[in-house]
Structures are given as structure tokens and as C-alpha cells.
Specification:
Layout lengths: L1 H8 L4 H21 L1 H26 L4 H32 L1 H23 L3 H27 L2 H20 L1 H11 L5 H40 L4 H10 L7 H5 L1 H10 L4 H25 L8 H15 L1 H20 L4 H7 L11 H8 L8 E12 L8 E12 L14 H9 L5
Length: 438
């Protein structure tokens, strides 16, 4: 008994625990930023290993051995990525062969635009060309910095190309070893709870990755069909490239529509083709966000859009393009962890999607009643009866008809002025329920 009382006396307030947890998160983010050269390949390897785990398990059921199954799964992933890269490079080379004709059409479009500016706004061609030249020079000056910030140096790219498959293999091969590490690291916590959290993290990330790959395939087909209907050449290339840009959440399809729209503007005689390309890609993005993704991914990855956008922006600020790709699975993992820690459940609730009760018209009143801020009105059931007796003149048996109606009268909640002196609400209720008879 004395030990329990001492533990209660030394318990920290919730605000102190929350502040300590948030401070720990800030320290962890600072360490991640300082070690991103090794951490980013490791995070990508974790995602790849999670996505390849079902394939490795399938090979293990064929009695191929755990090491060989992990290696074979990684090699198949390398083959798929290499095939996509070859397709993009090959199509780019084919488009580059027609660069001269495309350049002539682009110059003709620019000339028409200059004539329109001169006729409508009185801007001479020399002014337009000087502005375009100055902007082009500034862009060329910043190209090196932009490429370095986005993709990193060639050495980092090659290092990542070697480290990511290597990390993925060991994560698949040593997965049971790593699971026991978490059991040993959290001995004070129930091992059943630790195992449940690990399984939930795997399910959430796996659902996100498999759903993303499936949605990318559907979006690629929709983009390609729309471009074929509009008569745009290299429809498969532009449609697939735009779907790959879905790795950038919320903005990938919009960015992917720019290149085919410029190509349509260059090769077509009418600018409405470019407008049609952008419009179709926006329709595809609407279908993806409201119909395709909710039905495929479902509610397993429950992150509200506001927190997702904030996480994507923070990921881009910290880690560039890699941070944009890793933001959503990282936030989903954090939500699972926060939901399992009592001191961080409020943050996990904030990251998740609102329930239907939060979006109803009278949601504020229901919320106040739920938390006891406003007292729930009581209902007083009563029955109203009407009795009609009819007797014939001949003295026959009287006929009686009875009708009744049940009435639920809601008790009125009196308004209490916070500035008024303390009063007993029950007295107000009594005075309202028992009015004086005149």
C-alpha cells in the first residue's frame, strides 16, 4: 500500500508528460536530419522490405530457404524497377529524335503568343524576349542547385542504389531477430501489446504500399485512355509517367499533366488540346481521391488531409524529394505508435480522420453533452388518452372507442448566467415544472 501511494505521489502531470514526449519527438527529428545520408536509404529499404514480405513468404512456402527467398524477392524488385526505368529512358530517346520538329512548333506557338500580347497589351517582341532570356538565365543558374537538392550527388545516388537492396535483403532475412529486439527493448510493456503494435504497423504500411501500387496502375490506364482519345502521341509514356508521380501525394497527378499539356500545345494546331489534357487529368485526380483510393486502401490508413499536407510539407523541408515520398507512411506509423502510448493518444487522435459525429450539423451540442459540459435533457414519457362512448336510442349495448397517443416531453435545461451568483439549477427546474395556479 505504501509503495502504491508513493508511486501516485511521484506521478507527473499529463501536461509535463506530453511536453516531454513532444520534446523527445523534436530531438528524434533533429537526429534524423543529421543522419539522413544513412537514414533515408534505410527508410526506403524498410518500405521495400514490407512490400516484398508476402513475396518472400511465398518463396519460403516453396521450400527455397529464407536467405534465397529474400534474395530472390529483392532481385525481382530490382528487375521491375529497372524495367520501368528502361521504359522511361527509351521513350524519352524516341521523343528526343523528333526534338527539331517539336522545337519548330514550340517556336511558332511562342510567335503567336507574342503577336497576341503585342495586339492586346502593346508589349513589343523585344521586351518579351528580354524577359524570357533573363528568366532562362536565372533558371540555368539554379539548375545545378535544384538538381543537387532534389536528387543529390551522383555518389549519393550510387550509394543508395547499392545500400537499398542490401538493407532490404537483411531486413527480410533478419525479420524475426529484429522483432525480438523490440521485445527486449520494451520489457516493461506487455509483450502482447508490443507484438500487436508491430503487426498493426506492418498492416498499415503494407495496405498503403499495395494500395498505392494498385491505384498507380489504374491511374496510368485512365491517363493513357484519355490521351489516346485526344489523339496525343506517346500516350502510354505520358500516362505512366504521370502515375509514377503519384509518389508525391496530392500534387503528383497535377504535376504530371504539365508535360503532356506542353507536348499537346507543341504538336497540335489548337490550344484546346492542351486544355483538354489538363482537364482530363484533373478528372482522374478527382476520381482517384474520392472513389479509387478510398475503395482500395479503405480506412486502414486513417490520416486526415490537413495533417497529411502538414507532414508532406515538413518532410519536403527536412529531406527534399525523399521526404515527400516518405511522409505519409511515416505519419501512419507514428499514429499507430501514438495510439498505443497513453500519454500520446491525443496526438494520435489529432492525426486520424474525424468521425461522422464530428461532421454533423449539431455536432458541437453532441460533443458538449458527451464530455459533460452541457447536461443531457431528460425525457418524461406520458400518455394522452381519448375515450368516446356512443349509445344508441334503442338501448343497445354501448359502443366505446379508445384512442391514445404517447408523448415524450423533453425537460428544458435552464440557462445559467456565469456572471450571476451561484444558484441551484434544481430550484429553477422545480419552479418551471410546478407553476402556480391562479
Amino acid at each position: 500500500m505504501e509503495n502504491n501511494q508513493e508511486n501516485k505521489s511521484f506521478a507527473l502531470p499529463y501536461s509535463v508528460e506530453l511536453a516531454a514526449s513532444l520534446f523527445a519527438c523534436v530531438i528524434i527529428l533533429a537526429l534524423m536530419y543529421a543522419t539522413q545520408g544513412v537514414l533515408l536509404p534505410l527508410l526506403f529499404s524498410i518500405l521495400i522490405a514490407i512490400s516484398l514480405f508476402p513475396l518472400a513468404k511465398f518463396f519460403e512456402r516453396l521450400r527455397l530457404g529464407k536467405a534465397f527467398s529474400a534474395m530472390l524477392a529483392v532481385l525481382l524488385a530490382i528487375a521491375v524497377i529497372a524495367g520501368l526505368s528502361w521504359f522511361i529512358v527509351y521513350e524519352s530517346i524516341i521523343i528526343g529524335k523528333n526534338a527539331s520538329s517539336i522545337t519548330e512548333k514550340v517556336l511558332s506557338v511562342l510567335n503567336r503568343g507574342q503577336l497576341w500580347l503585342e495586339s492586346q497589351f502593346g508589349i513589343e517582341r523585344t521586351e518579351v524576349m528580354e524577359k524570357l532570356r533573363s528568366q532562362g538565365e536565372k533558371s540555368l543558374e539554379n539548375v545545378g542547385g535544384m538538381l543537387t537538392a532534389t536528387f543529390g550527388s551522383i555518389g549519393n545516388v550510387l550509394a543508395s542504389a547499392i545500400l537499398v537492396p542490401l538493407f532490404s535483403f537483411f531486413l527480410l532475412y533478419y525479420r524475426v531477430f529484429f522483432r525480438e529486439f523490440f521485445f527486449k527493448a520494451f520489457k516493461s510493456t506487455s509483450q502482447t501489446k508490443v507484438n500487436a503494435v508491430l503487426n498493426k504497423i506492418y498492416m498499415v504500411v503494407q495496405s498503403y504500399l499495395v494500395g498505392l501500387i494498385t491505384v498507380m496502375g489504374i491511374v496510368a490506364v485512365l491517363n493513357t485512355v484519355g490521351l489516346m482519345v485526344l489523339g496525343i502521341e506517346y500516350a502510354w509514356f505520358f500516362g505512366s509517367l504521370a502515375s509514377l508521380l503519384m509518389l508525391l501525394p496530392y500534387i503528383g497527378i497535377a504535376i504530371g499533366s504539365i508535360l503532356p499539356a506542353l507536348f499537346a500545345l507543341a504538336v497540335k494546331d489548337n490550344a484546346w488540346y492542351a486544355v483538354g489534357v489538363i482537364a482530363w487529368f484533373q478528372v482522374v485526380q478527382f476520381l482517384e481521391g474520392n472513389i479509387i483510393t478510398p475503395n482500395i486502401v479503405g480506412s486502414k490508413v486513417s490520416i486526415n488531409p490537413l495533417m497529411a499536407i502538414i507532414g508532406i510539407l515538413l518532410g519536403g523541408m527536412l529531406f527534399g524529394l525523399a521526404g515527400l515520398i516518405l511522409a505519409l507512411p511515416f505519419i501512419a506509423t507514428l499514429k499507430v505508435i501514438f495510439d498505443s502510448v497513453p500519454g500520446m493518444q491525443a496526438i494520435g487522435f489529432l492525426i486520424g480522420e474525424p468521425e461522422k459525429e464530428h461532421l454533423k450539423r449539431n455536432s458541437t451540442k453532441e460533443l458538449l453533452m458527451k464530455w459533460g459540459i452541457v447536461r443531457t435533457p431528460k425525457t418524461k414519457p406520458s400518455i394522452k388518452m381519448d375515450v368516446n362512448v356512443q349509445v344508441d336510442q334503442q338501448g343497445n349495448t354501448p359502443q366505446t372507442s379508445v384512442s391514445y397517443k404517447e408523448i415524450n416531453e423533453s425537460e428544458s435545461i435552464p440557462y445559467v448566467d456565469p456572471a450571476a451568483p451561484d444558484t441551484d439549477p434544481s430550484q429553477n427546474d422545480a419552479s418551471e415544472s410546478n407553476p402556480k395556479k391562479e
